[in-house]
Amino acid sequence: MNSHPLNEWITPEIQDRNERILKRPPVLDIQKLHKSFEHKGKPVEVLREIDFTAYKREFICVVGPSGCGKSTLARLVAGLETIDDGQILMDGEAVKAPGPDRGMVFQSYSLFPWMTVKDNVMFGLVESGMSKLTAESEALQWIDLVGLEKFADSYPHQLSGGMKQRVAIIRALANQPKVLLMDEPFAALDPKNRLKMQQYLLEIWQNIDITIFFITHDLDEAIYLADRILVLDAHPGRVKEVVNVPLPRPREEETFLSPAFMATKVYLESLVHHEDEEVEDMEDKLKMVRMVSVNSDVPDIF
Amino acid sequence: MSINFSTWFTPRTPLDKPSKRLLTFGSFAIPLLLWCLFSYAPFLWHPQVEITQSGGVSYFREGTLVDKEVFQKVVDKKVAENPGIDVSELPQGIPSNPVYLPAPHEVATAFYTAFTTPPKRSNEPWLHESLWHSIQVIAWGFFWAMLFGVPLGVLAGTYASASHIIEPFTEFFRYLPAPAFGALAVAILGIYDAPKIAIIFIGTFFQMVLIVAATTRKLNIALVEASLTLGCKGLRMIRRVILPGILPDLYRDMRILLGWAWTYLIVAELIGTSSGITWFITQQARYKNFDNVFAAILIIGIIGLVTDIILARLGKRLFPWHNSK
Lengths: 302, 325
What we know:
The complex is a heterodimer.
Chain A: H1 12-23, E1 26-39, E2 42-55, E3 59-63, H2 70-78, E4 85-90, E5 93-94, E6 102-105, H3 117-127, H4 132-145, H5 161-174, E7 179-183, H6 191-207, E8 211-215, H7 219-225, E9 228-233, E10 238-244, H8 259-272, H9 275-284
Parallel strand pairs in A: 3-8, 3-9, 6-7, 7-8
Antiparallel strand pairs in A: 1-2, 1-4, 4-5, 9-10
Helix pairs in contact in A: 3-4, 3-5, 4-5, 7-8
Chain B: H1 17-40, E1 48-53, E2 65-67, H2 68-81, E3 92-96, H3 104-116, H4 127-158, H5 160-173, H6 182-189, H7 193-217, H8 221-229, H9 234-270, H10 276-286, H11 290-318
Antiparallel strand pairs in B: 1-2, 1-3
C-alpha cells in the first residue's frame, strides 16, 4: 500500500477525513453483483462480481472505459434493471424495484415537458401522498434554492440545458432520497456550464443529507467532485480500483490546477486508458500519406 | 420578403412566406386550371357533340349529346344523299364533353342550388339533412372506435404483455376489408344506422389500436424511468405520465384516422337502406345530374379539410409545449 503513487499527496487532514468516512454507516452496499444482457441471442457479460460500499454522505464517482457497464450499474441500483446474481442493499434492505429512496438524474433531460417547473418538482411529492398544497410550498423552496424562482411557471422547453438539469436534480432531491444516482448528467452541457453545475452540485451536497453516486466518463469531473472514485474495467465490467481522491475540501476552481489534481489525473488515465484502446487507435489513423496536394497556395502549414 | 427560388430545390429547407402562400394557392389552382382547360377549350378532348339543330334527323334533338364520329357519319350520309344541300339545313352542333364531366361553373351553380332545391319527393331529405346524417354516422362510429381503441392501444404500447395478447389478432383483423362485413352487419344490426356505424368502427378501430400502440411506444423511455424513480407506477403512471406524454401525438393520430373514417363512410352508407350523402350522390347519378354529384363530393372534401385545419389549429393551442420539439 505504501507504494501507491497517490500516497504522497494524501495529507494528514485528507487521511483523517477518509478514515472518518469509512467509519460512517454504509448506505449503499453492492455485493457480488453480476449482470448479463442478451445480444443477438448470446449472453454478454456486462458486470462481473462488483463489490462496493458507499458510506453516508459520501460522494462517489464511477469512471471507466466505454463498455464497462457503469451506466448499467447505476440503473441496477435504481432498480431499472433486474439483478442476475448478487445483491444491492440500501440501508441493509435488498433493492428489488425502483423506489423514491433512490433518486435518479439522467443524461437526457427527463423533465415532463407538459408540466411547468413547479409541477415537475411537485411530481414525486404528490406521488408520495403529500397534499397538493404542502407539495407546492415545498417545491417552491427547492426551486428557490437553485435560483429558478423566476421560472417556476415556465415549461422545460423554455429553459437552458443547465437549468433543466438543476430542475431534474431538485425534482429527485425533493423526495428526500438516501442516494442520488446521476448518470452522466452534465455530459450534454458546454464546458462553462458544466463547471457551474458541478459547483452547484457540490454546494447542494454539502448542505443536505445525501449520498451521491455519480457516473461519468470525464476524469476531471470525477476528480473534482468525488471523495472516492470507483474505477471499472471493461469487457466485462469489473472493479479495477477504488481511488481515494487526495484533494482537500471545499474544492475551488483552482483545484483543477493543483499538482495533486494533475497527479490523480495522470494516475486515473493510466488505469482507464490501457492497451486494448490503443488497438482501436491504430485503425482510426487517417491515411493521409495517400493524399496528394494539388495546387495548394500554402504548401505547408508548419 | 421576396420569393427565393433556390430554396424550392434545396432538400429539406424551409420556404419563405410568399413562396409558401404561392405554392399552397397553386396546389388548388393547378387542378382547377386543368379542369377549366378541359371544360372550356373546345379543341381539348371534347369527344361529343351537343346538337343545336337537328337538320331533319329524327333522333337528333336539341341538347342531345352524340359521339363525334356518329355525328360526322350522319352529316356525311346527308351530304351524299342530297349533293346540293344547303349548309344551314344540315344537322349542327358544338363540341362538348360527356355528361359525367360537368364544367366548373355548372358544379359551382349546383353547389349552391343543391342546398336550395327541394328534394324531388316530399319524403326525401334535403342535401343538408343528408349531410348531417352522414356526419352523425361518422361521429358515432369514430366515438366507439376511440372508446375502445385508445385504451387498448395505450395498454399495448405500455406493457409488452398487453402488446402480445392484443396486437397479433388486431394485426390479422386489420387486413380484413371492412366492407366485407356489410351483409353480416345488416343481418345482426338491422338495416338502419347501426350497421353503418359498425362498418366505420371496424374500418378504424383495428388501425387505431396499432397506431396508438406505436405512438405510445415512441414516448421517451427516460420519462417513464424518471417517474419510476420518483415512486410512480401502474395505472397511476399511465394517467400521470404516459397519457399526457403521448397526448399531442395521439391527437394527431386521431386527425389522420378521422380522414379514414370518411373514406369508409361511402361504403357504410350503401349498406342496408342507403342514406346520407351517399344516398344523395347515387340518387343524383341516377338522374344523370353529375354536376350535383361533383358538388356533393366537393362538399365532403371541404368538410374534411376544414375540420382538419380547425383541429390542427386547436392542437397548437392545446399543447403549447409540443411546438418547440
